[in-house]
Amino acid sequence: MGKTAQLIALLLSRPPTDSGDLAALVLTPEHLCHQWRSEIARFAGDALSVELVTNAGEVAALHTRHAWLRRGSARVLIASLEHVCGNWEQFSVIALSLQP
Question: What's the whole-model pTM score?
Answer without folding.
Answer: 0.76
